[in-house]
Every structure is written in C-alpha cells, then in structure tokens.
Design goal:
Number of strands: 5
Order of helices and strands: EHEHEHEHHE
Largest sheet: 5 strands, parallel
CATH class: Alpha Beta
Distance between the termini: 22 Å
Length: about 140
C-alpha cells in the first residue's frame, strides 16, 4: 500500500501523519511525504532570500517527518516540490500513484471544522485517488 501524506510542517499535518501511521500500520504501507513551497511572486532579491529561507525550513521539517516515519519502522519517501500547491500535489499523485492521499483539515472549532481549506477542497474534488481529510 502506498499512502501519500501532505506535510507542511504544521502540527496539524504532523498529527495527520501520526494518525495515518497508526491506522494503516498493519498494512506496512510506504509513506510518501509531500510538501510544496510556493515560488515568490516578485523577483526582488529580498523575496528570493525569503523564498530560499522558507524552502530550507520546509526541507528541514520534511526531513524530520521522514525520520519520524522511518523511526516507526515504515518505508518513507520525501518529496519537496516548488510551485502552486494545488497543481504540484495533483502532479505528485499522478506521478507516484498512491492508493490514498491524506491531508490535514484546517482550523479548529465548530465552524472551521466544517470547512475544508482551499487546497484540501481542491484535492477532494480533483485527485484521481481517494482523499482522506484528517481533522
């Protein structure tokens, strides 16, 4: 079984990863972690420096998540993509062909719990594979 987990370095995405590992452990899945860094809108040197810093930070959190998965005895692959999150995540599912895509729900509280984030909602509507939204 191949499970793709969207991981943005947030506590919500880490919790979704941990629950995924717990729920699917008996199937000994391969976990494919994906994070996406958006390119800067402007081409100024300050924006480029901020982008590189953000990319390095996301790369570090992706490595920590991959180490967590490996430390729990599961096979893991980590993918850091650059671009529009919607496009890059759909492309990742097309390239890696997971059995299921896991995304973290956004926010907390009653109203926010009823609303998906824009990326999550897009993936639910457009991904070719089943999408599991973890709240």
């Amino acid at each position: 079984m191949r499970i793709m987990v969207c991981h943005d370095g947030s506590q919500r995405s880490q919790s979704a990863l941990e629950r995924t590992a717990e729920l699917f452990r008996v199937q000994n899945p391969e976990i494919i972690l994906v994070t996406v860094v958006e390119e800067p809108l402007d081409a100024t040197s300050q924006d480029e420096a901020n982008f590189e810093s953000w990319r390095a930070s996301r790369g570090d959190s992706l490595k920590e998540a991959a180490d967590w998965v490996a430390g729990h005895g599961l096979n893991v692959e980590a993918v850091l993509a650059v671009g529009d999150p919607r496009k890059m995540l759909i492309e990742a599912t097309e390239n890696k062909n997971p059995d299921i895509l896991v995304v973290a729900g956004r926010g907390s509280g009653l109203l926010q719990g009823m609303v998906l984030g824009s990326v999550s909602a897009f993936l639910v509507r457009n991904a070719e594979c089943p999408v599991l939204v973890m709240h």
